[in-house]
C-alpha cells in the first residue's frame, strides 16, 4: 500500500525583548545560572505577573507578516504540568483565546511553490533549563530562561515531506529575523520546533496515529528526524503493527528517534484562564500602528530583486536570506549599477570568507562601497578578474580599499599599446621556432605566447589586449 506523510510543526520563537514577559528580569543569553531571576518568574507565593506590552507588539508583527487574523481580545491561560524547570508548576500560555489565527506562508521547494496554513500564533513564557551532570546522576536547574517571552506558531498539517518541513522552518526564521523580533538561533534554543508526523493511506482524508518529535536543534536534524520517523512508521504499517501515539526524542549521534513518553492531550494540561491576568484588548488603531512598522518582507524582496535587478531566482533567494545581506547588496549596486556582477561577487568571494569565519554580514570587514570600487577597477581594466580575487582577500584581511591595495602592490594592468608591443616583440624574438609553428597552423601556441607575456609583465598585462596584439603581430 502507498502511504502519504502528514506533518505539522509547532515552532517556538524567543522574542528579542530586553525584559521577560511578566517581570523586569533581563532576557540576556549566557549569564551565570540563576542570576536573571526574581520572585515573579520564580513563582513565589503572593506575586503578580504584569504583561510586557512589547511582547504583544512583537507577536502582532509576526501575525501580520504571516497574514493571520488578530483577535480583538485574547486571554492567557495556565497550562499545568510538573517538570523540575517549571517553578510555578504551570506555564502561562494561551489556549482557547489565542492572539491570532488563520494565517499562511509560501515556501519554495524543488517541486515549486506551496502555501502552508498557520492554525494559530499565541504568546507564552519559556521554562527553565536542566543541566545534567556527566559524572554523576545529578541534574541542576537554571531558571534564567524562565519567563523569557515566546510565541508559538502552529502550522496546519499541510506539510507532506521532510524537505517541505525544513523549507517551512527556514521561511519562518527568515520572517522573524527580518522583523528583528527573534535571532533565529537554533543552537541556543531561541528558535526551536516540535514536529508531529503521521502516515495515512494515499487518497485518505483522515489522519493516522501521530508521533511528536523533540530535541532537534538544526534544520538538517529536523529533516533527518522526520525522514527516519517516516521510514519507521511505514515499516510498522507494512508489517501490520500499530503505531503508538507518543513523544519521541531525536538522537542525532545515532540518527534515530527513541520513545520518551505517551503524548499528552490538551485535557492532560487542565487549561483554565489565568486569574492574575486580565484579557488583552487589541483595537484596529493598535494593529495599524504595528503594521506601519513592518519592513519589506523576504518574499516581497525576492520578487523585487528578480524584477528590478533582473536576477535569477537562485540569486534573489540567497541575497534576501537575511535583511542585512539584502541591504549590503543594494548599497553595492547603488555605487556600481551592475546587479549580476555584484551578486556573483557576494555569493562567491564574500560569502565564502564570511562562512569560513562564521561571521555575520554586519561584521563584514569589506563595506559595500569598497566592493563596488573593486568591481569598477575590473570593469575599467585597471586590474584583471584574477588579480581582483587576490586584492579582495587583502581587502578582507586588512579592511583597506581596493585602490589602496592596488597602489601599494603596483598591481595596475599594463594596457598601454606601445609598452605591450615591446614586450610581445621580445617574446616573439626569443621563440622563433614557436612563431614558425604557429604560422604553420598550430593555433594552440597562442596560449604559450600569452603566458610568456604575462610572465614578463608579472601578470600585469591586460590579457584581452595581449591576445589582440599577438594576433596582429603574428
TrEMBL record:
Its EC number is 6.3.5.-. SUPFAM superfamilies: GatB/YqeY motif (SSF89095), Glutamine synthetase/guanido kinase (SSF55931). Belongs to the GatB/GatE family. GatB subfamily. Heterotrimer of A, B and C subunits. This is Aspartyl/glutamyl-tRNA(Asn/Gln) amidotransferase subunit B. It catalyses: L-glutamyl-tRNA(Gln) + L-glutamine + ATP + H2O = L-glutaminyl-tRNA(Gln) + L-glutamate + ADP + phosphate + H(+); L-aspartyl-tRNA(Asn) + L-glutamine + ATP + H2O = L-asparaginyl-tRNA(Asn) + L-glutamate + ADP + phosphate + 2 H(+). It is an enzyme of class 6 (ligase). Allows the formation of correctly charged Asn-tRNA(Asn) or Gln-tRNA(Gln) through the transamidation of misacylated Asp-tRNA(Asn) or Glu-tRNA(Gln) in organisms which lack either or both of asparaginyl-tRNA or glutaminyl-tRNA synthetases. The reaction takes place in the presence of glutamine and ATP through an activated phospho-Asp-tRNA(Asn) or phospho-Glu-tRNA(Gln). Signal peptide: none annotated. The keyword Transferase applies. The keyword Manganese does not apply. Residues 327-474 form the Asn/Gln amidotransferase domain. Keywords: ATP-binding, Ligase, Nucleotide-binding, Protein biosynthesis, Transferase. One of its GO terms (molecular function) is asparaginyl-tRNA synthase (glutamine-hydrolyzing) activity. One of its GO terms (biological process) is translation. InterPro entries: Asn/Gln-tRNA_amidoTrfase_suB/E (IPR017959), Asn/Gln-tRNA_Trfase_suB/E_cat (IPR006075), Asn/Gln_amidotransferase (IPR018027), Asn/Gln_tRNA_amidoTrase-B-like (IPR003789), GatB (IPR004413), GatB_C_1 (IPR042114), GatB_Yqey_C_2 (IPR023168), Gln-tRNA_amidoTrfase_suB_CS (IPR017958).
Amino acid at each position: 500500500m502507498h502511504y502519504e506523510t502528514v506533518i505539522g510543526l509547532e515552532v517556538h520563537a524567543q522574542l528579542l525583548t530586553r525584559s521577560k514577559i511578566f517581570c523586569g528580569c533581563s532576557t540576556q543569553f549566557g549569564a551565570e545560572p540563576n542570576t536573571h531571576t526574581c520572585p515573579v518568574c520564580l513563582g513565589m507565593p503572593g506575586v503578580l505577573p504584569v504583561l510586557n506590552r512589547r511582547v504583544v507588539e512583537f507577536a502582532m508583527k509576526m501575525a501580520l507578516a504571516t497574514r493571520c487574523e488578530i483577535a480583538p481580545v485574547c486571554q492567557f491561560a495556565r497550562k499545568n504540568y510538573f517538570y523540575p524547570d517549571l517553578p510555578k508548576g504551570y506555564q502561562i500560555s494561551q489556549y482557547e483565546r489565542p492572539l491570532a489565527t488563520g494565517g499562511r506562508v509560501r515556501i519554495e521547494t524543488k517541486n515549486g511553490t506551496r502555501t502552508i496554513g498557520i492554525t494559530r500564533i499565541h504568546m507564552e513564557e519559556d521554562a527553565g533549563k536542566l543541566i545534567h551532570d556527566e559524572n554523576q546522576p545529578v541534574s541542576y536547574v537554571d531558571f534564567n530562561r524562565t519567563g523569557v517571552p515566546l510565541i508559538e506558531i502552529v502550522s496546519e498539517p499541510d506539510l507532506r515531506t521532510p524537505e517541505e518541513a525544513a523549507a517551512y522552518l527556514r521561511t519562518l526564521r527568515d520572517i522573524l529575523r527580518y522583523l528583528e523580533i527573534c535571532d533565529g538561533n537554533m543552537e541556543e534554543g531561541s528558535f526551536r520546533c516540535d514536529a508531529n508526523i503521521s502516515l495515512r493511506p494515499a487518497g485518505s482524508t483522515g489522519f493516522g496515529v501521530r508521533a511528536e518529535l523533540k530535541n532537534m536543534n538544526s534544520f538538517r536534524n529536523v529533516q533527518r528526524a522526520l525522514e527516519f520517523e517516516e521510514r519507521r512508521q511505514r515499516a510498522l504499517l507494512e508489517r501490520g503493527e500499530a503505531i503508538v501515539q507518543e513523544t519521541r526524542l531525536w538522537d542525532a549521534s545515532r540518527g534515530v528517534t527513541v520513545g520518551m513518553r505517551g503524548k499528552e492531550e490538551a485535557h492532560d494540561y487542565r487549561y483554565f484562564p489565568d486569574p492574575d491576568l486580565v484579557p488583552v484588548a487589541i483595537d484596529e488603531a493598535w494593529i495599524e500602528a504595528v503594521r506601519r512598522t513592518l519592513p519589506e518582507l523576504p518574499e516581497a524582496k525576492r520578487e523585487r530583486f528578480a524584477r528590478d535587478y533582473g536576477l535569477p531566482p537562485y540569486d534573489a533567494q540567497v541575497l534576501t536570506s537575511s535583511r542585512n545581506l539584502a541591504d549590503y547588496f543594494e548599497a553595492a549596486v547603488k555605487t556600481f549599477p551592475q546587479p549580476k556582477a555584484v551578486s556573483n561577487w557576494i555569493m562567491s568571494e564574500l560569502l565564502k570568507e564570511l562562512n569560513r569565519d562564521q561571521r555575520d554580514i554586519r561584521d563584514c570587514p569589506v563595506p559595500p562601497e569598497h566592493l563596488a570600487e573593486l568591481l569598477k577597477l575590473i570593469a575599467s581594466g585597471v586590474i584583471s578578474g584574477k588579480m581582483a580575487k587576490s586584492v579582495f582577500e587583502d581587502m578582507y584581511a586588512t579592511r583597506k580599499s581596493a585602490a589602496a591595495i592596488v597602489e601599494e602592490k603596483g598591481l595596475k594592468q599594463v594596457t598601454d599599446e606601445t609598452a605591450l608591443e615591446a614586450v610581445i616583440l621580445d617574446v616573439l624574438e626569443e621563440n622563433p621556432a614557436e612563431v614558425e609553428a604557429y604560422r604553420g597552423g598550430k593555433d594552440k601556441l597562442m596560449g604559450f605566447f600569452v603566458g610568456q607575456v604575462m610572465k614578463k609583465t608579472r601578470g600585469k598585462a591586460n590579457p584581452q589586449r595581449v591576445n589582440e596584439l599577438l594576433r596582429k603581430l603574428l
